[in-house]
Specification:
Elements lengths: L10 H12 L4 E5 L5 E5 L1 H7 L19 H9 L4 E5 L13 E4 L2 H7 L1 H4 L3 E6 L9 E4 L6 H8 L8 E4 L7 H19 E11 L4 H12 L4 E8 L15 E8 L9 E4 L4 E4 L7 E6 L5 E2 L4 E3 L2 E2 L7 E3 L3 E4 L2 E2 L3 E6 L4 H9 L3 E4 L7 E4 L4 E3 L3 E2 L9 H12 L10 H11 L5 E4 L6 H13 L4 E6 L9 H4 L5 H19 L12 E7 L4 H4 L22 H12 L7 E6 L2 E6 L4 E4 L6 H9 L4 E4 L7 H14 L4 E4 L1
Parallel strand pairs: 4-26, 4-27, 5-8, 5-25, 9-24, 14-21, 25-26, 30-31, 31-32
Antiparallel strand pairs: 1-2, 3-27, 6-7, 8-10, 9-10, 11-23, 12-22, 13-20, 15-18, 16-17, 17-20, 18-19, 21-22, 28-29, 29-30
Helix pairs in contact: 3-7, 4-7, 7-8, 11-12, 12-14, 17-18
């Protein structure tokens, strides 16, 4: 029985909980006046979350800190003026596929996807560069204020995101790695659904720091655990003390209370689970009347000690059995696997609880086909999860050469995808590498009939000129990944032509680039009066209607995988996104006849080029036409 609180609500504690939900990284620990640990808000960190410049003022507290952390937070929050440009010639089934392959810096990609995929991604898997001293890391352009960020994002100088060798001689060895990953994970958290999960592959070098950083970003209560993956069949002896055969996969949920158990199949129907569990604490369980099915003769069984060997069981009440059921409630004292709350749950569900004989050994019989939780050990010997050697063989079978070093096996990703996703969930990988995640999602859909979608992001990082990939004609890792997905999709579709004829093996390639808009659009005050004639159009001359359409989709937060059709109405090109979800016309000389025709289709959204109307009167009348014919349409111009 709960006691009365006898005090008013602790509003400060309630506010801390609310802030923790919005900004988990701002919740820290301090000590109260009695020296006891207590939760509090890191106000410096909160100020930084709400600021567009670096905030000074750190103080001693329990948290992970490193040089460059504030710059990393600023990088996560700073706006960019970039866009996604479609590339039809490198895509597969561009107009119909629901899968995306984004080429460019993943920090930019994560920012561009914030509106569209906020809270929509079920699973994220990443295999970021390991901090081994020879790997290459993204070098982000950190700036002191928003203006500098916009200047960098518009590429007004000749710098671009570049790679930095993170050698052991670098005094900021751990700091550079953390600074690179921190803003990306913060943005990734926003994309996860409430029941979404992120899996991060990592080795020994940064595992402790990764764990602490994720606890700060996602909240320590959302740590689901760490998988230990047996990546090799034979150990590597690079470690001076021991041979290494394993790596880690860290799992964090957006909200662990909403995330179901990670599945490793379902429990066998009729599987028997004993209540007794030697070694647990001794306590009483009360079995309500009629809750137990007895497979012994009707009658009365007296209270008695039923212990045998190391099993403790004491019947505390006489039990009256009639027609195979207990007529009265009874208590058993012993070492139990289940609590009274769990027993009550079984009873409420009318679950099958069986006692076959004296001495009593109650069993729960599972008939629900409930999920069997996965173990945290992923091994080719225990649960069939393949190794890196198997991954190399997969690449060889597709390309006929070892074009990718250290790829992850599809079996590992399929295991994770199967564990947390169903039906049409979105699976994302923003360190796509050779494209294993996409390969695995297509394979899983072919296996179970699902329609999961993937979003891959890969930097157009150059392949080393002495690499097998470069010798086979792949200039960048992104090109290699796209070809891998093409080949894998074709192979899987052919193998499952009869069982999965509608399998989506395509992907829509989108490349990160500077904004389609000219500098005048972002800084009109910088244009001189004499230059106004050449700046009448605020769109860059090399950009196509497809480019403009996808910038609109990004800015409006419309799903980038929706089907797109193109129609010629009059002599104008009109795009229809998912029927009438969005209608766009970027042609010039648009007249009232076209405006009326589009308004009759009652689109949810419509957009025109700002300079595309035949006259100022058409531009003015356009809004009145839509108010009359389609008042629910949201209208914008570019």
């Amino acid at each position: 029985m709960d006691k009365l609180k006898l005090h008013t609500p602790d509003l400060a504690a309630a506010n801390i909980e609310k802030l923790a939900a919005l900004f988990p990284s701002c919740v820290t620990e301090t000590r109260d006046e009695n020296g006891a640990p207590t939760r509090t808000i890191d106000f410096d960190q909160l100020r930084q979350e709400l600021s567009d410049h670096i905030v000074e003022g750190p103080r001693e507290r329990y948290h992970l800190d490193w040089p460059g952390k504030r710059e990393a937070l600023l990088a996560a929050n700073a706006p960019i003026a970039k866009t996604l440009r479609p590339c039809r010639e490198e895509s597969v089934d561009f107009d119909t596929t629901k899968n995306l392959f984004i080429e460019g810096d993943n920090l930019d990609a994560l920012k561009l996807l914030q509106e569209t995929y906020l809270g929509k991604v079920k699973m994220i898997y990443i295999d970021p560069p390991y901090n081994t001293g020879g790997d290459f890391l993204y070098e982000d352009d950190f700036a002191s204020d928003k203006a500098d960020f916009l200047q960098a994002s518009n590429q007004r100088d000749e710098e671009r995101n570049r790679m930095l060798a993170n050698e052991f001689t670098n005094g900021r060895f751990h700091s550079d790695w953390l600074t690179s990953l921190f803003p990306r994970l913060k943005l990734a958290r926003n994309l996860l659904r409430d029941d979404g999960v992120i899996f991060i592959s990592i080795d020994d070098n940064e595992y402790p720091n990764l764990l602490k950083m994720c606890e700060e970003i996602f909240g320590d209560t959302n740590y689901c655990g760490t998988f230990i993956w047996e990546k090799k069949k034979k150990p590597s002896f690079l470690n001076a003390n021991m041979g290494t055969v394993t790596e880690y996969i860290v799992a964090f949920a957006r909200d662990r209370t909403s995330s179901p158990p990670f599945a490793a199949g379902t429990v066998e129907d009729g599987k028997k689970y004993p209540f007794n569990n030697a070694g647990n604490g001794v306590r009483e369980l009360t079995f309500p009347a009629g809750s137990v099915q007895f497979r012994c003769a009707d009658g009365t069984i007296k209270a008695q000690d039923m212990s045998e060997g190391n099993i403790i069981t004491e019947l505390l009440d006489d039990v009256h059995i009639k027609e195979g059921r207990n007529e009265n409630p009874f208590r058993l004292r012993g070492e139990w696997r289940y609590s009274q709350e769990k027993l009550n749950e079984f009873v409420a569900q009318r679950a099958e609880i069986v006692i076959s004989k004296t001495p009593f050994r109650p069993n729960y019989i599972n008939r629900s086909g409930e999920i069997k939780k996965t173990a945290n050990l992923l091994s080719h010997r225990t649960n069939g999860v393949p190794t890196n050697e198997d991954a190399t063989e997969e690449i060889r079978s597709l390309f006929g050469a070892d074009v990718m070093s250290h790829p992850k096996p599809t079996g590992l990703l399929r295991y994770l995808v199967r564990a947390v996703s169903v039906e049409d969930d979105i699976v994302m990988d923003f360190y796509a590498g050779s494209g294993t995640t996409a390969h695995s999602v297509i394979a899983m859909n072919a296996e179970d009939g699902g329609s999961r979608r993937f979003i891959l992001v890969q930097l157009d990082e150059a392949c080393e000129k002495d690499s097998e990939a470069f010798r086979n004609g792949y200039a960048t890792i992104a090109n290699l990944a796209k070809e891998r997905v093409r080949r894998a999709g074709k192979q899987i579709k052919e193998e499952n032509r009869t069982t999965a004829p509608d399998l989506d093996c395509g992907f829509r390639v989108l490349k990160i680039d500077t904004s389609n808009m000219t500098d005048m659009y972002y800084a009109p005050d910088s244009v001189k009066q004499d230059d106004l004639v050449i700046h009448i159009d605020n769109i860059k001359p090399d950009r196509t209607a497809d480019d403009l359409l996808f910038q609109v989709l990004v800015d409006w937060g419309v799903d980038l995988s929706l089907p797109i059709t193109k129609e010629i109405i009059g002599d104008k090109t009109v795009f229809f996104v998912d029927g009438n979800a969005l209608v766009a016309c970027f042609d010039s000389k648009v007249g009232e006849d076209l405006v009326k025709e589009l308004a009759k289709s009652k689109p949810l959204r419509v957009i025109f080029r700002d300079s595309g109307f035949d006259s100022d009167s058409v531009k003015i009348n356009m809004e009145q036409i839509f108010k009359l014919l389609s008042p629910g349409t949201e209208i914008r111009s570019l």
